[in-house]
Amino acid sequence: MAIFLGLLFVNETSTANPKGIEEQYLGNESDEVATEMKFKKTDKQMLNIVHSHILSMSLIFFLLGLILSTTQLHYKWKIFLMVEPFLSVILTFGGLYLLWKGMTWMKYVVMISGTFMTLSYTASALIIIKQLIFPKKTNS
User: Fold this and answer.
1) What does the alpha-carbon distance between residue 12 and residue 101 come to, in Å, rounded to a whole number?
2) How far is CA 139 from the centre of its chain?
3) Inter-axis angle of helices 43-68 and 75-100, nearest 10
4) Every domain of the chain and the residues it spans
5) Is 1 helix (H, G, I), strand (E, B) or coil?
6) 74, 75, 106, 133: most buried, per Cβ within 10 A?
7) DSSP string, 37-90
8) pLDDT tens, position by position, 79-102
9) Cα 95 from chain centroid?
10) What is the C-alpha end-to-end distance of the chain, expressed in Å?
């Protein structure tokens, strides 16, 4: 649930598009027609955002992966759904840091990796919930 609240927050603060993501971290002081003034994040703000998100989301995905490993899902899908979120966390929040450092094309990497991170989280959670509600009967 917290992941989806975070997505709602992202949508409200950056309009979930490349220009909005760039403005959220680099500011829009030079844009004379901006409806809301945004300033470039400080070193401390960026390090706090990157550090806290990487640690907390890695823990969430680790625990979700442990639960997912107990499901009756094909091995290759389990591996994909357990590894992909960690790659996406690094790409998303590392990408935000690199965007803030001036690599403005990283906003596209951030959007794509954030989408994959959300999809893999949702798929994993739904698989776990489905198998909890409708367990497969084993022959013993």
Assistant:
1) 23
2) 39
3) 180
4) 54-129
5) coil
6) 106
7) ---PPPHHHHHHHHHHHHHHHHHHHHHHHHHHTTS---HHHHHHHHHHHHHHHH
8) 999 999 999 999 999 999 999 999
9) 11
10) 37
